[in-house]
Specification:
Length: about 1050
């Protein structure tokens, strides 16, 4: 049956009327490749926004109207329809307003039979609202899933351990930190478990459940309970929060565990620091930026006698005594107000009114922005030191007055030959004033030839320390001449080093004249004994010959060299044997008498043997030699009585010559009979001012200087009685001249006949008054010098202790500033991390990776701050036992402490050299030496505003020693200051103490047996910088080196 077009049109019109109000658009389309719409119901404009005329007959309808993302699969599915195939599609369709809406297409393939035309019949429904709801729901689910994932990531990345439980304390979940703490594979593994599954002790689990129940029952949050963990050395901060529903009913519990071990350690470290300040022997107080006191330690209250309430809120001006100058306080405020440290001494007043001297160090405390918020003051009570200093000045003035009173020139000079202290006698000796002498050398004071001679003597004494006694001939500038006896001694400090020379000069011109006279007389006497006819020999207490004159040698037939050292009894004394044989070791009767009576022995019956064995008779006079009243030998004179007459004549001549010699000798000689003067020589006349006639028949009492005549008479009788007992009398007494002047005199009396001393005696007298006075002065000076040396040694030790303590206080003040530098960067980093997290979270840009980076950055900053505290605590920890330590590591740690300070001043610091140097000593003291040098170099670079400041530290080993050189480019040190920079209290800084470099030398040289040198580095005719070289012994046994790298 064939359908006409009119019938077809009528049918379609009928369909339009039937489905005009239905929200479904019906259509037919050709089954060709383009699927051209043939017919579309009139409601297409209402339902799809497409009028039928825009659709029907358009071969490009589907390609132009379907969304490009949907067109391919829609057309592919339509092309696949055949037979009775059906398809249901959803896609986006563009209306005339260019808006895409979602439609649902139910389409089928229609064909009237073989050979007949086929078409597609379908209906389109508007599902845009439903599809949009589905898409919105999907987007909501995605957002919810992303939010849940974000929250989960946040929870899993939090360092706190989070757990949530239900009302029965059963775990419903935890974050990743909590799962790791319980050693679970993941957070889901905890679901359904309770505390009983993780604690072996049920009582501990019961206790935790009881705490959970208390929080959930009360509905109150439990915050920040610090408890130690079962893990070693771990502290946990526990917080519990009840979870409530929308009705306020508690349905569970949120538990937070946070590892606060680092914070706890920092808190304990701060508590230790606080206790250290509280227990410090130094006074410590803190003020605000306006100078109002906010804190004082107990030592401060004890020192000044105030109560804490009387001090807090007041200004330190309350302590001023008025003795410290206004200039001192002006410099103080200028220094700390500009952010610099100030150190000095202040005279303060206690509450009781007593004066106290304090060594004060004040440091500003700045905040993160560099603004001064507080001032820290540390005081050391140096009242006793100042008192000792005053007493020392008084003692030095007393000693100066004492040596000024001495008549002999006395001086002290340094090893550079410059005089540092002289007495008035030295001023007269040099014919110059004290100001013209002190600081000058011998070349400035004495003639050139003498100065050269004195310098050579000084150099020899410095090279070989000890005492030196020398004589030299002085030619004055006016041409006059003097003989000088110089006594010198090297002054050695506690380190065993020569630091100066102490000496005195004695004018021995008169002594030399007397000595020459005595030498002449001695020569005459030797000549006399050499020419005298009597044989004379001297024996010791063992009867061994020590001297024999030529006559004795000639008579005995020996030469002098052969006789010396022989036993007199074995050689020629043979008395006592009838056959004239030797007596062997038996003492002769004469020797025995000498030992027993200790007096002169005369004998006419002795027999001596000549060398060839021939005996001959001799007349012998033997006089004992006594030392401290004991027999010490004898002087024996003998002559051959065979030629007695001839010998007697020779003796008379010899006696006459002897009298002539004695008459011209430069000593007093007198001959007395019956206790009366019979003869005196000319020198004795001059000595006492009496002539021989005036003293003739006078007793010794006339010359006695003891005062009254009775005492003098007793003394005279004692002298004569002693002559009778021992033949020889020798003593020192005060004698009186004819003018009445008394003086010390050395007396030696010999009785001619010991049995009858009054019958005749010879007296020798020597004026020793000057020598006696010199002895007294030397004895007093030696006693005073010994006492002074002991006192100065004790004071030096005390000063060294104070210097080291002051050095550590200065280093501690420097370190407080370094702590601020070290913490400034990590604190700024933490602030930026927190700000960035907040900003990214608000903007929705905080993902897992960014959060992880922020957390890692914060952890590193916190770890750095913790390490800083540990480093500074280790730096100031005292070390009382010497130990091996790595020189490179010690320097590297010190540089790390100062890195922030050096960097902030634009200074580059470099460390290079041998990393395996190992020394033996106190590593903290060595670190303090390096710190002082680096800080001094930094101060010089900053003060001189060097544009590219640099500090280079180099290490090397050589000949068993390690050398550390520290150099800078700050322009060096003035040449006139190089020799003094290591002196205590010498400084070139405006506010320096002069302690650091002296303390460095003390530590290196005394504590580590090393040395320190300093020099300037020059180039192109100018100073480039300073270089300090530290040389210390190295640990020689490499097997004991814990820092040596494995090779």
């Amino acid at each position: 049956m064939t359908v006409t077009d009119a019938e077809n049109t009528a049918a379609l019109t009928q369909l339009d009327r039937v489905f005009g109000n239905v929200p479904v658009v019906f259509y037919t389309a050709a089954a060709d490749g383009d699927f051209t719409p043939i017919w579309m119901s009139l409601n297409s404009a209402q339902v799809l926004g497409l009028p039928p005329e825009c659709c029907a007959g358009s071969g490009a309808f589907w390609r132009e109207r379907i969304h490009p993302l949907d067109a391919e699969h829609v057309l592919r599915e339509l092309g696949g329809l055949s037979g009775s195939g059906l398809a249901k599609q959803e896609f986006r369709l563009r209306d005339v307003t260019e808006h895409f809406r979602w439609v649902e297409n139910d389409v089928s393939y229609r064909s009237d039979g073989p050979g007949e035309s086929a078409c597609l019949v379908g209906c389109l429904r508007d599902i845009d609202a439903r599809k949009n709801r589905e898409l919105e729901c999907a987007r909501s689910q995605e957002i919810q899933q992303a939010r849940e994932h974000f929250y989960r990531s946040v929870l899993d990345n939090l360092p706190q351990r989070l757990f949530w439980k239900d009302r029965n304390s059963v775990f419903r979940g935890c974050n990743l930190s909590g799962a790791k703490a319980l050693k679970l594979a993941g957070p889901d593994e905890i679901v359904g478990k309770s505390d009983y599954d993780f604690y072996r002790d049920p009582e501990e689990a019961d206790y935790l459940r009881l705490l959970d129940e208390e929080v959930m029952s009360s509905g109150l949050v439990s915050y920040h309970c610090e408890v130690p963990s079962r893990e070693a050395d771990v502290w946990l901060d526990v917080s519990k929060m009840p979870l409530c529903d929308e009705h306020g009913e508690v349905y569970g519990l949120l538990v937070s565990y946070e590892d606060v071990s680092a914070l706890k350690r920092s808190e304990m470290a701060l508590n230790k620091f606080k206790r250290a300040v509280e227990q410090s022997s130094n006074s410590v107080f803190i003020t605000d930026a306006d100078g109002t006191i906010e804190y004082v330690n107990p030592t401060f209250l004890e020192t000044y006698g105030y109560e804490e309430s009387e001090v807090l809120g007041r200004n330190p001006r309350m302590l001023q005594s008025g003795l410290s100058t206004a200039e001192t306080y002006r410099e103080l405020w200028q220094a700390i107000g500009s952010g610099r440290n100030w150190s000095g001494e202040l005279a303060n007043r206690c509450r009781s009114g007593n004066l106290t001297w304090q060594s004060v160090s004040i440091s500003p405390i700045v905040d993160d922005f560099g603004s001064i918020t507080h001032f820290l003051a540390i005081e050391d009570d140096v009242t006793r030191h100042k008192t000792l200093e005053t007493k020392l000045k008084q003692q030095l003035n007393f000693i100066q007055a004492l040596i000024d009173a001495l008549p002999h020139p006395i001086y002290y000079k340094g090893t550079d030959g410059r005089y540092q202290r002289v007495n008035r006698a030295f001023e007269e000796f040099a014919h110059l004033g004290r100001k013209e002498i002190v600081g000058k050398t011998n070349f400035d004071i004495f003639p050139q030839e003498m100065a050269v001679q004195l310098k050579a003597m000084d150099d020899e004494l410095i090279a070989l320390p000890g005492n030196s006694v020398r004589e030299f001939h002085l030619v004055e500038r006016d041409g006059s001449q003097r003989d000088i006896l110089s006594h010198k001694a090297a002054f050695i400090d506690e380190r065993g080093e020569v630091v100066g020379i102490i000496g005195s000069h004695f004018d021995i011109t008169e002594y030399k004249r007397v000595e020459a006279a005595l030498a002449e007389n001695e020569a005459r006497l030797r000549e006399l004994t050499s020419t005298v006819g009597e044989g004379i020999y001297v024996v010791d207490e063992h009867q061994v010959i020590t001297f024999a004159n030529p006559a004795a040698v000639k008579m005995l037939g020996w030469n002098e060299r052969e006789l010396i050292g022989l036993d007199v009894h074995r050689i020629f004394n043979c008395s006592g044997h009838a056959d004239s044989s030797e007596m062997g070791g038996e003492p002769c009767c004469m020797a025995e008498l000498i030992r027993q009576a200790q007096r002169t022995m005369r004998s006419q019956g002795e027999m001596f043997l000549r060398k060839e064995g021939m005996p001959f008779p001799v007349s012998v006079i033997a006089s004992p030699i006594l030392r401290e009243g004991r027999y010490a030998g004898a002087v024996v004179a003998f002559h051959d009585i065979t030629e007695q007459q001839f010998t007697q004549r020779l003796l008379d001549n010899a006696l006459q010559e002897l009298r002539t010699v004695l008459d011209n000798a430069q000593i007093g000689v007198a001959y007395m009979r019956e206790g009366k003067f019979s003869w005196i020589n000319r020198y004795m006349e001059q000595m006492f001012g009496y002539t021989i006639d005036e003293l003739h028949d006078e007793s010794l009492a006339i010359l006695c200087g003891m005062g009254d005549s009775t005492s003098c008479k007793i003394c005279e009788n004692g002298m004569l009685r002693h002559l009778g007992e021992s033949r020889v009398y020798e003593s020192e007494h005060q004698m009186r001249r004819h003018s009445g002047e008394t003086f010390w005199c050395h007396q030696r009396g010999v009785a001619i006949d010991p049995d009858d001393p009054a019958s005749g005696s010879i007296w020798i007298m020597l004026d020793i008054d000057k020598l006696k006075q010199t002895e007294y002065r030397l004895k007093a000076l030696n006693e005073s010098l010994a006492q002074r040396v002991d006192e100065e040694t004790r004071k030096s030790l005390e000063k060294e202790r104070l210097l080291i303590q002051q050095g550590r206080n200065a280093a501690m003040g420097e370190m407080i500033g370094n702590i601020a530098h070290q913490w400034r960067q990590p604190l700024s980093t933490l602030g930026l991390v927190i700000q960035n997290i907040h900003s990214d979270f608000r903007e929705g840009g905080l993902d897992d990776d960014e959060l992880e980076k922020y957390v890692d950055t914060a952890k590193r900053a916190i770890q750095r701050m913790s390490c800083t505290i540990d480093d500074f605590r280790d730096f100031f920890r005292p070390s009382r036992v010497k130990e091996q330590f790595s020189v490179y590591q010690s320097i590297e740690e010190t540089i790390r402490l100062l890195a922030a300070m050096v960097k902030n001043n634009g200074i580059e610091i470099a460390l290079a050299g041998d990393r395996e140097l190992v020394a033996y000593g106190h590593p903290n003291e060595f670190s303090q030496v390096i710190l002082n040098f680096v800080v001094n170099a930094k101060d010089a670079l900053v003060e001189r505003k060097v544009p590219k400041g640099r500090i280079d530290i180099a290490l090397k080993a050589q000949d068993g020693n390690g050398t550390v050189t520290i150099r800078d480019n700050a322009g060096g040190i003035a040449e006139d200051q190089l020799e003094k920079i290591f002196d205590p209290y010498y400084t070139t800084k405006p506010n320096g103490t002069g302690i650091g470099l002296h303390m460095n030398r003390t530590i290196i040289e005394q504590h580590m047996n090393g040395s320190i040198t300093c020099c300037n580095l020059s180039g192109r005719g100018e100073r480039l910088g300073a270089e300090f070289a530290i040389t210390i012994p190295l640990q020689r046994d490499e097997t004991d080196n814990p820092y040596a790298e494995a090779k």
